[in-house]
């Protein structure tokens, strides 16, 4: 899928980021129909049979009578601890999501399969050295996870990360971290991104799989209610303080403890996230539980306003150099 074809399908250049235990087929389908790209982690399914059911649903819902496919994506963990990678990849080959996003490992294991049916491989990266490795491995695009992202997060600002990656990579560039509205999306695109990851903005969507209490906590929270710590999963992640406290964890006493990492699907992986809830710095933009279509409409209006504002400044000859 070429860039012009991909962008021609979008109302606003946004991917509803794949979120563990949150993103499911309803969210992906609603996102595609609203004019953005929906994505889900294959790890959200406990078995390959469950995943096949999900992928079949999405493929059917986002393919019209003429065979035209709206963009959607799956997220595959390529870390060596993911024992189900081969089975999940076989299903990817069968249902052909236009975008496959790899995480926590090299994109190399999926390239031949995805390129074989004409799809694009996007590698999640959290720093510049990883971005260089993924680009060298042959990824079609890079998803730069920046400071302010929910869940496992990066350290660089979205603007610094975008500039650094654009100095050596001219493929599809996605950036995410702390962006919660259409104004921020426009700023990221102006800085060099092609698409923008928004995760937290969709946590409280009607179609999200997040439980009601999680959605309400996101609605009630601001950026000051977050803490970044590696003390839960072994990797720095952005957590909602009220969620940690509700589970008997003092967010200010996590220290430097880093438990063993594991990226296999199953109850052990899910247990750390089921009751301990994550969010990113865009949490303040979430003010109600609303359908994906309404969220996208707001993002689109804000994006258009930002683009118009930038254009008017250029026409007026305003220069700050």
UniProtKB/TrEMBL annotation:
Highest taxon in the source lineage: Bacteria
Keyword match Transmembrane helix: no
Transmembrane segments: none
Keyword set includes Ribonucleoprotein: no
Pfam annotation, one family: NMO
InterPro entries, sorted: Aldolase_TIM (IPR013785), NMO (IPR004136)
UniProt entry keywords in alphabetical sequence: Dioxygenase, Flavoprotein, FMN, Monooxygenase, Oxidoreductase
SUPFAM superfamilies named among the record's database cross-references: Inosine monophosphate dehydrogenase (IMPDH)
GO molecular function, one term: nitronate monooxygenase activity
Family the UniProt entry places it in: Belongs to the nitronate monooxygenase family. NMO class I subfamily.
Protein name as annotated: 2-nitropropane dioxygenase family protein
Source species taxonomy: Bacteria, Bacillati, Actinomycetota, Actinomycetes, Mycobacteriales
């Amino acid at each position: 899928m070429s860039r012009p074809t991909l962008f021609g399908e979008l109302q606003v250049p946004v991917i509803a980021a794949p979120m563990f235990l949150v993103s499911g087929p309803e969210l992906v389908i609603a996102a595609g129909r609203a004019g953005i790209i929906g994505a889900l982690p294959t790890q959200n399914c406990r078995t390959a049979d469950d995943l096949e059911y999900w992928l079949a649903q999405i493929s059917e819902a986002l393919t019209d009578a003429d065979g035209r496919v709206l963009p959607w994506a799956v997220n595959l963990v390529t870390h060596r601890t993911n024992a189900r990678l081969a089975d999940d990849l076989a299903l990817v080959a069968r249902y052909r999501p236009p975008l496959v996003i790899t995480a926590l490992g090299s994109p190399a294991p999926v390239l031949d399969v995805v390129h074989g049916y004409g799809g694009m491989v996007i590698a999640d990266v959290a720093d510049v050295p990883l971005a260089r490795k993924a680009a060298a491995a042959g990824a079609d695009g890079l998803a730069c996870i920046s400071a302010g992202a929910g869940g496992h997060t990066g350290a660089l600002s979205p603007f610094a990360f975008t500039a650094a990656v654009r100095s050596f990579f001219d493929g599809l560039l996605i950036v995410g971290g702390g962006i919660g509205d259409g104004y921020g999306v426009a700023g990221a695109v102006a800085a060099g991104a092609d698409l923008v990851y928004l995760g937290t903005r969709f946590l409280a969507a009607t179609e999200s799989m997040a439980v009601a209490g999680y959605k309400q906590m996101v609605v009630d929270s601001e950026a000051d209610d977050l803490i970044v710590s590696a003390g839960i999963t072994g990797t720095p992640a952005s957590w909602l303080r009220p969620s940690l406290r509700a589970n008997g964890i003092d967010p200010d006493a996590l220290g430097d403890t880093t438990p063993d990492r594991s990226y296999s699907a199953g109850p052990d992986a899910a247990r750390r996230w089921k009751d301990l809830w994550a969010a990113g710095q865009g949490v303040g933009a979430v003010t109600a539980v609303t359908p994906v279509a309404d969220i996208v409409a707001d993002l689109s209006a804000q994006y258009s306003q930002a683009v118009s504002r930038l254009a008017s400044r250029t026409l007026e000859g305003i220069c700050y150099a």
